[in-house]
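Holo prediction. Input below; ligand is iron/sulfur cluster.
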Amino acid sequence: MDETLSYSTSTRPREECGVFAVYGHEDAARVAFFGLFALQHRGQESAGIAVADGCQVLERKGMGLVSEVFREDTLPKLPGHLAIGHVRYSTTGSSVISNAQPFLVHHGNEYYALAHNGNLVNAHALRVELEDRGSIFQSTMDSEVVVHLLAAHLKNGLEEALVHALGRIEGAYSIVMLTRERVIAARDPRGFRPLALGQFNGGWVIASETCAFDLVGATYLRDVEPGEIIIIDDQGLHSIRPFPKLASSHCIFELIYFARPDSQVFGKNVYLCRKRLGHNLAKEYRPDVDLVMPFPDSGNYAALGYAEESGIPFEMGMIRNHYIGRTFIQPSQAMRNFGVRVKLNPVRPLLQGKKVLIVEDSIIRGTTSRNRVKHLRDIGVKELHMVVSCPPTTYPCPYGIDFSHSGELVAAQNEHIEEIAKFIGLDSLHYLSLNGMVEATGMEANNFCLSCYNGRYPISPPEDMGKFCFEKET
Ligand code: SF4
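Structure of the complex:
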């Protein structure tokens, strides 16, 4: 019997979430739809949009891709000139509709909708404290604590309540909020996750990445600064910086892997950054090979940079099938390699009998690389070497990436690079040095969070930072 099942073909790290906000467009829901479409790579589990027209707040959210949740006939049902949107990959709480965002509540004759990218490291302690005081939670997301903290201080006005709520939370947050008449954006004082501000025809947009501005015809103005709160209403844009300036902890993994290459992130162009990572890899390690190739798409730009610097021919040795949905008919046992092969297929005459250097952006669990390398061995590649455009990922991430336990990390489980090379099935393996990675960004190391490489956490992680930490107690 055929059974339609969710069937993941990859163990690559997942994006954490994407947020978008617009103020001052007559069809704000449609602008948000296109904005979320551009941010789809940051989360594919659920999508949602909340809109306001000055009087009412409406919301639609659902499980699936943006194009599955919103259709041509649903957008006209969301009238208004301000909107926020969210695409989610769950890093705290299960992938269920009650955890989809924006998170909308009604309190004191006002509506508050919130969308959050990042992970709060003290959410569990805050939730226990709030529940002890009588708060009733509707979800198992860390983001919901922000709404409860906000509601507790609204009698003093929204701005003061925001400062209170954001002053209590710790960790990574790039947040957009909406009320009947206002759009609000806030970024944590260390600026872990990106958040950019743009403008169009007198209106404002805010997005996790600038690629969302290009799609809606907005111009990038600047980043929302770490620790800044922006409030936009009919009086214009109003910015406050109520928190003391802290050392930046921008997530360097955004530049290496997460963000789209056509985005400006932390003021840097992601595409050019990734090419420079490839340049630096070629300066550090150059085995005797016939060609250099990426595992598309994420390794493409570092591979281009490697080929440019080394003079070794660049080839697209594996071709990606772009038309794979997230759901498959489960293959039979006899087709157990289906998951590996359906996404990337090798160009056999190009690779058979050759010495090949593969450029990867990162190795997290190692199983995806291993499966792909085995596939290349099976078709007769003579030698397989790999370079990786970041150092070994040895420590878990508590700030919103889905490797929250060191047991998941192949570099944490194997002390020596040779052991990882053996696990993956490679003739040789080289990781970019920490200096080589940071140098490629054009920024100083002290601007970045490098915790997953060096174990130095700018904010102490909680003891249990698992994705389901709010669900174990129930
Ligand atoms: S630990 Fe790694 S993935 Fe997490 S925020 Fe820091 S650099 Fe990014």
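The pocket of iron/sulfur cluster is lined by residues 192, 251-253, 397, 399, 401, 449-452 (CB under 6 Å). That is the main takeaway for now.
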